[in-house]
Amino acid sequence: IPPPSLTPGWYQQSPATSPGGRFEASLTYDAAHGQVVLFSGNDEPNDTWLWNGTNWTEVFPANSPSARYNPAIVYDTAHGQVVLFGGTDDSSNNRLGDTWLWNGTNWTQATPANSPPARNGSVMVYDAATSQVVLFGGTNGSDLNDTWVWDGTNWSQQSPAHSPSARADHSMVYDAATSQVVLFGGSASGTYQNDTWMWNGTDWTQASPTTSPSARYAQGMAYNAAVGQ
Prior knowledge:
The protein is an all-beta fold. The protein has strands at residues 26-30, 35-39, 48-51, 56-59, 68-69, 72-76, 81-89, 95-102, 107-109, 123-127, 132-139, 143-150, 155-157, 171-175, 180-188, 191-199, 204-206. The strands form 4 sheets. Strands 5, 6, 7, 8 and 9 form a 5-stranded antiparallel sheet that branches. The two termini are 27 Å apart.
């Protein structure tokens, strides 16, 4: 298989071991340990898998979050650990509001003084400009438009002058070229959105691009450092 860095394109991998099929799992890159972390998913156990670029390995940490789907997950660069929040419990179907940290070996439940209400369908991103994790929206039966930041120990709700409408299953990413978080789309009361918003660490600002992707939810979005977008 040609190295993707030399020949642009998608190449299906054939690892010797692999997680079972699933959806609404949580997945993020753990830069401290150079591996991708996958956790649980709908109708799946609370399993943790690591991808090293060649193969998947299931690990068996001493502690672990309960089985769940559609949580928020991100790598916290400032503290060198993965942060997982909320989701829907796979056995009770209750929404969760717990915070868990992955250190490359084990999961530890955090005990913050303050915490966002239970929800699923929220999104988190690491804001390098403020060295904080930013969480926006999700649903607890009703869609939410609250903004929270995680400083490694505690959650703090923000009070921006402007904000995207309440929504779930949107996408967010940190744009290093402009030093701000970008949010796109999502589902607001069952209506798909195609608006674009930026978070500068204090307030949300709606962008007015000449062209835009069509309305959608649960889409993927990532920052491409090679081209700065």
